Amino acid sequence: MRADRLVSLVLLLRQHGQLSAVRLAQELEVSTRTVLRDIEALSAAGVPVYAERGRYGGFALLPGFQTQLTGLNHDEALALVVAGSRRGAQAFGLGSALASAMLKVIDALPESYRDTAAGASQRLLIDPAADLLARPIYTDEMPDEVAAEVLRAVLSGNKLRIQYAAFNKPPEWRDVDPIGVVTVRDQGYLLATREGSDRTYRLSRIQAAEALPDAAERPHRVDLDKAWQERTTKFRTGGDQVTIEARVHPTRREELARTALAIHTERPTPDGWLHLELTFQDRRHAEWALWQLATHAEALSPDWLRATLQTKAAKLAARYAES
DNA sequence: TACTGCAGCATTGTCTGTGT
DNA sequence: ACACAGACAATGCTGCAGTA
Fold first, then answer.
1. Which positions of strand C lie within 7 Å of protein CB atoms?
2. Mean pLDDT over all residues of chain A?
3. Residue nearest to nucleotide B10 (CA to C1')
4. What pLDDT does residue A313 have?
5. Which CATH number fits domain A2-61: 1.10.10.10, 1.10.468.10, 3.90.1720.10, 1.10.530.10?
6. Which residue, among A71, A70, A65, has the nearest Cα to A17 in the 3D structure?
7. How far is the CA of A107 from the C1' of C5 (A)?
């Protein structure tokens, strides 16, 4: 408590230049005598604070004094400031804490670097809310209190009870052993185990959460990056994968390739297009990938894919024919 | 093991003195 | 008159020993 107040006191003096004990006492909600003792403690600790006695007097710091609260060098502090501009912290309900921490980091920098760091947070924007065409970037929304509870369980190593609404399913309560939280672009995932089996939960689908008193069953140390890669690999190799044949215009080849899990064969056709054999996560992905390329691609097999695309195209043609 | 009492310490507020 | 500084007392917390 007192340590916090000493830090606040230094920041107040830095901010206002000179303040009387009475004014500091009001700001810190303690008596003036306590403020005077805090000043004394700071002075004993080597903080160059001096008193100006008499009317219009007060306490002030020697010019140029820096609060070395963080021990960070310029680049480290700058990296934090830049990272602090991301909206990622919002996903964990830590936005206000991050803003407060950033102020302290900037304040702790040497005078010559402070403008650079403060400017960095204004001149570098990472992941804004909309792209250049004003299209909103859809982010996973999660109530702060739910995010805070998930985070609490993850960090304390306790079991977590969540109300989770899987895709197209009603919400259900389930107890899990949390391992960590991963954010990918604007989506967050909770990595956990449930009854010994790996589970990955999308944060936006967690409707309520409660950290339980029991310790979670989890490895003492975890390589979250490795764990995430293993799960994404498992996800990509599981499910109802489909392999299709298609021909695509060379200018749209990359778009098709990016949406596929794998490309097995690829050869040019006599008409200058490319013939590919590809695997997709499921039927829905395959259909979507071909449909978005419109006339620049053609599904050759299997028959169900051709039939689906034909039906959609016919409906679209009919709609425009009506007018 | 849990509870109680005590000493020591840190923190805080009030009153009064001193300097400008 | 205003603001800082010293002396003293009150309060609350912590650690430790003793006891049921």
1. 1-7
2. 76
3. A2
4. 92
5. 1.10.10.10
6. A65
7. 31
